[in-house]
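ok so heres the complex, two chains, lmk if somethin looks off
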Amino acid sequence: MGKTAAAITGISEWKPARVWEQPMFALEAAAQLAAEVLADAGLTRDQVDGILIGGLPESPMFAPSALAEYLGLRSNFNEVVDLGGATACGMIWRAAAAIEVGACETALVLCPSVPAPLPASSGGAPGKMQMPAYLGGDAWGSPQGQFDIPSGLVAATPGFAMIASRYLATHLVKPETLAKIAVHARYNAQANPLAIFRGRPIAIEDVLASKLVADPLRLLEIVMPCFGGGACLVQRADAARRGPRRPVLVSGFGEHLTHKTVSYMPDLLDTPIRVAAERAFRMAGASREAIDLASIYDCYTITVLLTIEDAGFCRKGQGAAFVDDHDLRWDGGDWPLNTHGGQLGAGQAGMAGGLSHALEAVRQIQGRALGRQLPRAELAYVNGTGGLMAEQVALILEGA
Amino acid sequence: MRFSAAGRPLPRPTPTTQPFFDAAREGRLVLQRCPRDGFFYYPRSHCPRCLGRDWEWRAVSGRGSVHAFTLDRVGHDPAQRSRTPLAIAVVELDEGPRMTANVVDCEAEALRVGLPVEACFERVEDVALVQFRPRT
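and the predicted structre for the whole thing:
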């Protein structure tokens, strides 16, 4: 038994989309998500005394106070978390830790990932999701701007491709093995009404025939960036037990980082997941074998392979054999992985994409993963990967 | 970031990193060397191992091998789309540190992890970018 102080109860998630038909400000999306998540948890706004957000475009400074003011909150714990794709998982453990030490009792974890309305003068149509290539790495004085960006090492895909090249040169991996990760993600997505690729299953051959984007990564091994939104409510576990939802304890957590870009990763094949996951499992007092569901950040197929290894589900270098030996599907798979389809199948809705892995674990543990419910879902491993295999957060979630 | 007339992103040296770029313009690869921890890269104010400041600039061999690589087929940087397919590699220098650069004068099929390479200098306007080419 691990931590028992804090539990996730309410959740909300929006269907990811490439084009967002009704643009809204992050503040407005946060207000809507807060209303939905409070309704789901059976709470009122007055009970909220903690805010966690990954920044607000409408208030680049003072984001928590801007949010408190907009939502009419009187908040005791206020955090901006800056961990890329690991932000959502990082927010969840911070909320749980704050609750455990008594800093707050009920915290909103908010991931609005929507486009703002265009100013009336611009007259443009709703924009397609586009990530800025440099992700802020071009700031004056930034090492990345001087020593990485001029080479073309920008965005995320080339960096993960770099790691994949090293992995493939070190370990024997069949292309079909990596493709299987994408295929099973798509399979699971078919049972998720929120998945962007619902209705579009793929086969191994489709992955192998898809175009090379950055060798060795092919198009269908890469997430599709989307708009979307998600939120959850973390509250004191004793209060959570009185609510309408089964409390999902944040039983263990770990976070680790050592580098910003792949260039300076101490070891390209030893990711910070190893330390983060070990800390989480130890804190939760849980074994790898006891996990009913893995909800692993899957920006690329290679991310999943390395995470399976570094989180300790198999020995180093045995990730490919593990994937070959297991069925990752929700219906009858012996090692169900990302039963919502992961981000490979459901879409990567900004920071809400990272949150989707935690929300799916909550749904499964609460028994409301409609249409894809696992027969047994008591204990889940969830993780988040930020930036270029840099920011890592691992969570162990457990039904109370 | 600043850009060449042709739109290529170029480094903007800082007071700390200027000696690296000055040396490159003279066709020399210099790295900082800490008396306790040896060479490190990228250039910075303090040794990333001991946080000491008593490092010196030293010339290095420029020899190394490809530690990891990718061939960017689509141009993830819109400003570099005209250079695709773009060979980007993490090169491990014989002296230890790893540098990220382009591999030039190399057929795509010849690019592999472990490929022996040596530093070369690509002049773009007033900057000399450190790149690598296969060692013969």
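quick notes: Chain A has a mean pLDDT of 96. thats all i got rn
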